[in-house]
Automatic annotation (TrEMBL):
Gene: dapA
HAMAP family cross-referenced by the UniProt entry: DapA (MF_00418)
Highest classification ranks of the organism: Bacteria, Bacillati, Bacillota, Bacilli, Bacillales
Reactions the enzyme catalyzes: L-aspartate 4-semialdehyde + pyruvate = (2S,4S)-4-hydroxy-2,3,4,5-tetrahydrodipicolinate + H2O + H(+)
Name of the protein this chain belongs to: 4-hydroxy-tetrahydrodipicolinate synthase
InterPro entries: Aldolase_TIM, DapA, DapA-like, Schiff_base-form_aldolases_CS
CDD domains: DHDPS
Length: 291
């Protein structure tokens, strides 16, 4: 399964009452595929506000996005939770729906050790034939999966990739020793080009909602050997990569990118509590980023 080099972790559009806005979801899918050059979409990941979505909403979103995409890109279901049994259940249901793969986040809050992480992911992978992408994001989970644990998991046939947010150092360690067909994605937009330079395969992105076509050009330039052009594009996009998260003070994802989409004429509504929309100061900062 080739998920491509530019994958967008898609936001979940909501209406004014906080329910899923299906018409806006339909428009967003077309926009991300046709205008922003997304080769795959992660549905119900962190950027999709998975903690506030019910299982029923998640499964409905998987089915809806799969049908709307209609083969134009791959669909990756975010089925990871901090419960192994719950993750297995969601993964099996997503497999029945027909998604192309699943993204499994490192369990949060219960803080397993490395052996627990290994057994958690191995157990889920053993219950599905779908390709599995691991997701290491210690800033959100409080636990970081080590390179050694990732490499152990990479030996399991249907664990095919990882989304790595720890560091470029860790990406380097994984790329240096993983199987040839195991793919490493940067989960940090601002580290994306550096990740490619040390052997990463692509980027699972938030900023691609608003600058995806430029990111696709950057990735293409790098792999075509035009490193100078790739660097130019990275430097141009860097303020957007950083600004969507730092805002002038840290703003939880996806509050900023949802607001940015609205400024681009793609109305996806706001966020569900406990997240909140940008303040007036933050909104002005985001608008300036996109000029």
């Amino acid at each position: 399964m080739d998920f491509g080099r530019l994958i967008t972790a898609m936001v979940t559009p909501f209406d004014r009452s906080g329910e899923i806005n299906w018409e806006a979801t339909s428009r967003l899918i077309d926009y991300l595929i046709e205008q922003k050059k997304s080769e795959a979409l992660v549905v119900c990941g962190t950027t999709g506000e998975s903690p506030t979505l019910s299982d029923e909403e998640k499964l409905e979103l998987f089915a809806y996005v799969l049908k709307k995409a209609a083969g134009r890109c791959k669909i990756i279901a975010g089925t990871g939770t901090n419960s192994t049994r719950h993750s297995i259940h969601l993964t099996k249901e997503a497999e029945k729906i027909g998604v192309d793969g699943v993204l499994l986040v490192v369990p949060y809050y219960n803080k397993p050790n490395q052996e627990g992480l290994y057994r958690h992911f191995a157990a889920i992978a053993g219950e599905t034939e779908l390709p599995v992408i691991l997701y290491n994001v210690p800033s959100r989970t409080s636990v970081s999966m080590s390179a050694a644990t990732t490499l152990r998991l990479a030996e399991i046939p249907n664990i095919v990739a990882t989304k790595e947010c720890q560091s470029v150092d860790q990406i380097t360690q994984i790329v240096s020793a993983c199987p040839a067909d195991f793919r490493v994605y940067s989960g940090d937009d601002s580290a994306g080009l550096a990740a490619l330079a040390v052997g990463g395969y692509g980027i699972i992105s938030v900023a691609s909602h608003v600058v995806g076509e430029q990111m696709a050009e950057m990735i293409q330039a790098y792999f075509s050997g035009n490193v100078q052009r790739a660097g130019e594009l990275h430097r141009k996009l860097f303020p957007v990569f950083k600004g969507l998260f730092e805002c002038p003070q840290p703003l939880p994802n996806p509050s900023a990118v949802k607001y940015a989409l609205g400024l681009r004429g793609v109305d996806v509504g706001t966020v569900r509590l406990p997240l909140v929309p940008p303040t007036e100061e933050e909104a002005s900062f985001i608008a300036a980023l996109l000029k």
